[in-house]
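DM from R.C. (forwarded with permission)

"hey, sorry to bug you on a friday — could you get me a structure for this? deadline for the figure draft is monday and I only need the backbone to look sensible"
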Amino acid sequence: MASRGKSTVFRVTGLPGDQPDDQLAARLRLVIDEKLHEHERLQIVVKVAVVPSCRNDEETSIALVEFAGGTPQFLAELVKNPLGDWQMEIE
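My reply, with the result:
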């Protein structure tokens, strides 16, 4: 896990646009929580905000996910390579 300095914010794309924002945020938090190690759950505060797409695409939604207290291990490669991507499926 990265140091406890600044919070890190990640953009999540490709979320289903046919669901209410609060449901999408809850599902995304659940998937993230499953990926966190036990010690990360105690140290990291996850904040999720579903935001409008800048492309006016109603089929998909975008979320901004802030990790206060450190970057989770499963996203460490994105800190090294900010232009990379990491994919996961939300059911």
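R.C.: lifesaver. The beta strands are 8-16, 45-51, 60-68.
me: no worries. Helices lie at 21-35, 38-43, 76-80.
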